[in-house]
């Protein structure tokens, strides 16, 4: 009998590239706006303008840092489990503890979740609402209206999970 996980790569990284491009564009835009606001702080003769520009500079700098941190958003699945990396978080799921998978559509988009001991953990997040506010809905597998990356991600996650259960 063939090994059920022999044909799987050792590990796979899932990313939603449009989100990463948007984060890169945001980091550049917020960085430039931070520079402009800092220029106003340093060159304005008015103390009120300097204070307001300083507050704006801090806020824009925080947004720039957050968008840079968002570039690390990805999910790494392997034969033992999944690690979802967010801008400021890291969630690990071990396949042997997972009871089921599902797909949910909510703000900020689509997510593949793994359920273990009654708790859901997002294993892949696709920041995509197709320009409309989603109605929170849960599915056993991605519905036809889900983005292609959710379908592809679900196939990969499901394959690793099932192979770990069978292997």
Break the fold down into its secondary structure elements and pairings.
Layout lengths: L10 E4 L2 H27 L3 H23 L4 E5 L2 E5 L4 E5 L5 E7 L2 E8 L2 E8 L10 E3 L8 H19 L1
Antiparallel strand pairs: 1-2, 2-3, 3-4, 5-6, 5-8, 6-7
Considering the chains and any ligands shown, give keywords for the structure:
single chain, 167 residues, alpha+beta, 2 domains, 4-stranded antiparallel beta sheet, 3 helices, 8 strands, 27% strand, elongated
Major sheet characteristics: 4 strands, antiparallel
DSSP helix count? 3
Overall number of domains: 2
**Helicity range:** 40-55%
Distance between the termini: 11 Å
Overall pLDDT? 89
From the alpha-carbon coordinates, what is the Rg to the nearest angstrom? 21 Å
Protein model, in words:
The chain is an alpha+beta fold. It folds into two domains: 17-70; 75-166, no CATH class. The protein has three helices and eight strands. The protein has helices at 17-43, 47-69, 148-166; strands at 11-14, 74-78, 81-85, 90-94, 100-106, 109-116, 119-126, 137-139. A four-stranded antiparallel β-sheet has the order 1-2-3-4, with helices on one face. A four-stranded antiparallel β-sheet has the order 7-6-5-8, covered by helices on one side. Strand 2 (74-78) and strand 3 form a beta hairpin. The longest helix has 27 residues, at 17-43. 25% of the residues are buried.
